[in-house]
Design goal:
The protein has a six-stranded mixed sheet, with helices on both faces. With about 180 residues, the chain is of the alpha/beta class. The chain has helices at about 15-20, 95-110, 135-140, 145-150, 170-175; strands spanning about 5, 40-45, 60-70, 85-90, 120-125, 155-160. The longest helix is centred in the middle third of the chain and has 15 residues, at about 95-110.
Length: about 180
């Protein structure tokens, strides 16, 4: 059963991010992906290391994440169910126009009745780009403080880069805890 969805506007970096988490050595500065038209399934395995927190007793050792392409935003609601307990929402911080659009998409998820108990991980991707928005600017454009006051979900914010691997351990930890 799929308990985690990964969504965000098209070209936000969802596929590259999940590929980098699933196969850390497979993504580098020469890597690229194409727009996801439909869905992708990723199985993320928990790999214990000295710097990672131990899993809770009886915790899952792998999680299946369904990535929904940004082109399918109007159909995302078809994948919402009571079984979905986590959503990774990916925003490309290097695309100024996309950040505001992403705020509208995020709000539509947060007000969805079936997702009121869902944990949300807002991932600000492409933080390694020189021409990206800074964290505070991106969050201001997303109106995140206003959203947090209006919705019941727990929202975790992580800055990440699939290329430099920044934030990937934090996302993995969030998935498993």
């Amino acid at each position: 059963m799929i308990s985690c969805l990964c969504v965000g506007p098209k070209n936000s970096g969802k596929t590259m991010l999940l590929t980098s988490i699933q196969y850390p050595d497979s993504v580098n500065f020469t890597s690229h992906s194409v727009n996801t038209v439909g869905t992708n399934i990723f199985t993320i395995n928990y790999v214990p290391s000295a710097d990672k927190k131990p899993l809770k007793k009886n915790a899952k050792k792998s999680i299946t994440v369904r990535e929904l392409g940004g082109e399918m935003a109007v159909m995302w609601k078809n994948y919402y169910s009571e079984a979905v307990n986590k959503i990774i929402f990916v925003v490309d911080t290097s695309n100024l126009c996309q950040i505001s659009c992403a705020g509208v998409l995020l709000y539509s998820i947060l007000v969805e009745p079936r997702l009121q108990k869902t944990k949300i991980c807002l991932v600000l991707t492409k933080m390694d780009y020189a021409y990206r928005q800074m964290r505070n600017e991106a969050l201001l454009m997303l109106q995140i403080e206003t959203l947090k006051k209006q919705v019941p979900q727990d929202i975790t914010i992580i800055e990440a880069s699939a290329i430099t691997k920044e934030g990937l351990d934090q996302i993995t930890e969030w998935l498993f805890n």
